[in-house]
Amino acid sequence: MVLTADVHLPEESELTVPEVNLSGATLIASSFHLGKYCEQANNEFMLCRIEEDDPRKCIKEGKVVTACTMEFFRKVKKACLSEFNQYANCIDKSSGDFSLNFCRNTQGVFDKCMLDNLNLERPPFGYFTEARVHDTKRPKPRPEPKEVYPDSTPALPESADKKPARFGSRFYWMTE
Amino acid sequence: MAEACQIIRKQDLPPPGGYKPIPFKRIPAKSYFSGYAIFAGYIGITAGAMYLYHLNYKQIKKNEIEMRSAKMAIYPMLLAERDREYLKQLRRNRDAEAELMRDVPGWEVGTYYGERVYKRLPPDALVEPIFHEYYAHSDPHEWYKRAYIKLRS
To answer: Where is the stretch described as Disordered (chain A) (predicted)?
Structure first.
């Protein structure tokens, strides 16, 4: 494999946190409120992940995301369990790809419960597809410095005599 | 012989009163619409169908955007979970390779007898292994299951 002993890989204990053990239908059903509730953590993690392009450097942010998600689902379980179960069940069984458009009635009930109990409004249509600006304290990674080759051919001095080409242009039909 | 074959011959003649006149006159099919009406009808029906298609198209696009929005909202959580599991598996793979090549003198993990694959990268750079390397120490059945999904997605 390409991973040598020099590559730092985190220990298993560093990576073990309680994971969100939920089904796809449940996640899709809760997606809008979850994304709104954990927006800060999600944006921080995704910015880190895209900028650094290395899973090892964003483990801390990823743990925050998972912790936030767990917290969200604990709150939902406490406040709106039956409404949420009804909605997730509808999402699960109404279509093959967890489409949201067949479950507007149950969605309305769930949204109302979330708004009343957790004061969490459903984000507007297409909210998470919009581009967003995220302000972070993490320093921006430096771009890769340009390679310098010590044995490269030195360039001509600025004052070098630049005579016209002896046999004209190679592209004489285009430039002359 | 000639007497035996004698039959009454009758000349083939027109029926009495003569033949009926030959109906050579063209009888066109009954036309319900004129050409212009057909063109107008075609354009009208097409325009109506296009309008309905447009309504349906807008609805489908809206549903797609909503689904994409939902998936993008849960993507960070899924990615965080995936990253952790991936790094765990990379460590397991490296340990498995060290264990497997323990008795080979001169073997260094991740290299070919000390020769690195990517010589110009910094030593700590994480190069994601290709699919076959990632599954090299796993059960072939697991490899097959994953490859089946991978090749179809």
So the answer is: 132-163
